[in-house]
Amino acid sequence: MVTKIKFGTDGWRAAVAEDYTFENVRRCTQGFASYLIEEGNAGKSVVVGHDKRYRGEDFAVAVAEVLAGNGLKVYLTDDASPTPVISYAVVAQKAVGAVNVTASHNPPTDNGFKVRDSMGGAIDPDGLVKIEALIPDDIADVKIKKIEEAQEDGTIAYFDSTIDYIAHIKKLIDLQPIKDAGLTVVVDAMWGNGAGWFSGLLNGGKTKIIEIHNERNPIFPEMARPEPIPPNVDVGLQAAKDHNADIFLVNDGDADRVGFGDENGEFIDQLRAYGLLAYYMLEVRGDRGAIVKTLSTTTMLNKLAKVYDVPIHETGVGFKYIAPKFLETNALIGGEESGGYAFRGNVPERDGILAGLYMLDFLVRTGKKPTELLADLFEKVGGEHFYNRIDTPFEGDKQEKIDTILAANPETLGGLKVTKLVTVDGFHFHLEDGGWMLIRFSGTEPIIRVYCETMHEDKVDAILQDGLKTAGI
Q1: Helix (H, G, I), strand (E, B) or coil at 88
Q2: Pick from 100, 311, 371, 395: most CB atoms within 10 A?
Q3: Burial class, 7, CB count within 10 angstroms (exposed 0-12 / middle 13-18 / buried 19+)
Q4: Sign of the CA dihedral running 347, 348, 353, 358
Q5: Topology of domain 12-165, CATH
Q6: Above pLDDT 90, what percent of the chain?
């Protein structure tokens, strides 16, 4: 039976040896190659990279061989590379796109296939539909040039993707003050592609970088998955406490996302982190420009936009929506609830390395601790905001779940009146306190996510439980 390959929020992901096989990866690559050629890019260059999951480098070679078989030139990374590094390589190599073999934060059983455009950003939804339509059902329709032949004729070339990226980063941020600051920073690489990056960029001064989980281990011990949220970060947060760290940084498996812990080893949730980064850009750096946010992230951004008189744009969940709006508006910052943030001057892509450096710069420029910076942020936006999320697997028909949610039509959630329902991406319930609750289906896994943000700490659990009931769970 032919596997139907379907792109989700950020590419295609599937279980290795079940649907994620070499044959299906080659079929998927043929669809991307055909798309690039139809878009007028015959004979041009494509970047291919991979993460540290099982046989990632071998799947990357399979991708490269199909692209080469279609007459495209391939720059193949010589090692596992963070997604933002691969994205920047597209620009640096003047390529027309990229494929990254990674399942990002998914469980260890999975691998994935991320595609990027000529700007290094996520391909928009219309483009993904075109790629899907061009994926052949029969492996016989896939064109392949073996790597040995392709290397000999120059169609495939291994390259070091780090050189251009590091030079680029040093133009965006002055690293020397961070090196000289004398901070103690614990970094959790989550066994992934972020290993060695912060130490490599910041060693040589008074600041001390302590890395954990920085070796290759595709089963991701001490965490369920390399996703930078609790409980996956609990070991890292404890390490931060043990080392009396000033701040804790954690990247997901492909290092396009980042999470933070404060000086007490307490997790700073992703919505607060986005609020801090936007506050840093606007207040400390004094920059101005649009903010792009998904509907699943914080309303603190709306309040900051009003304070600093900058535009704000809300999109569906995923960088396939954020990246086009980010480019269209020349945005200052763009981001989502998952811990992915993009910045003006960089590619329109999540960058967990640059975001981490900017947060360290925030501490150094202000001389403040993370908790003090949060207090400043809350003062700007009118008070403390509270967030949580529940992910739960579901079985059966997705449409039945949708019908259940529509039929429920709750008037209150957690005791707060529902003032509006928006169905741009999932079911986004606006609440009377300015907060919200969102129910949406994961674009990469059979999971329903229920999120909420409110200024009433005592209502978070009740809102989430009402959200689960609304979804029939």
Answers
A1: helix
A2: 100
A3: buried
A4: positive
A5: Alpha-D-Glucose-1,6-Bisphosphate; Chain A, domain 3 (3.40.120)
A6: 90
In this structure, which topology does domain 173-381 adopt according to CATH?
Answer: Alpha-D-Glucose-1,6-Bisphosphate; Chain A, domain 3 (3.40.120)
For residue 348, cis peptide bond before it (omega within 30 degrees of 0): no
Round the CA-based radius of gyration of the chain to a whole number and report it: 22
pLDDT on residue 444: 67
> In sequence order, what are the residues at sequence separation of 6 or more whose Cβ sits closer than 8 angstroms to the Cβ of residue 267?
229, 230, 233, 237, 259, 260, 261
Rounded Cα–Cα distance for residues 436 and 456 (Å): 11
pLDDT at 1 > cutoff 90: no
Stated as kind and residue range, the H or E segment containing 452 is strand 447-454
**What pLDDT is stored for residue 41 in this prediction?**
98
Q: Which residues contact 313 (CB under 8 A, 6 or more apart)?
A: 290, 291, 292, 293, 325, 329, 331
Report DSSP state, residue 77: E
Please tell me the predicted confidence (pLDDT) of residue 365.
Answer: 98
By three-state DSSP, how is residue 338 classified?
Answer: coil
- How far apart CA 469 and CA 410 sit, in angstroms, is 10
Residue 416 confidence (pLDDT) above 80: yes
Residues 63, 22: contact at Cβ < 8 Å?
no
Predicted confidence at residue 3, as pLDDT, reads 86
Given the structure tokens 């059902």, which residue do they identify? 137
Rounded distance between C-alpha atoms, residue 274 and residue 135, angstroms:
37
Q: What is the mean pLDDT of the chain?
A: 95
State yes or no: pLDDT of 130 exceeds 70.
yes
CB-CB contact of 351 with 201 (8 Å):
no
For the chain, give every residue range classified as CATH 3.40.120.10: 12-165, 173-381
Could you tell me which residues come within 8 angstroms of residue 318 by beta carbon, excluding any fewer than 6 positions away?
A: 9, 10, 122, 294, 336, 443
CB atoms within 10 A of CB 287: 16
**Superfamily of domain 386-470, CATH level 4:** Alpha-D-phosphohexomutase, C-terminal domain (3.30.310.50)
For residue 460, give the amino acid letter.
V
What's the rounded Cα separation, in Å, for the pair 256 and 55?
20
Cβ-Cβ contacts under 8 Å for 237 (sequence gap 6 or more): 248, 261, 265, 266, 267
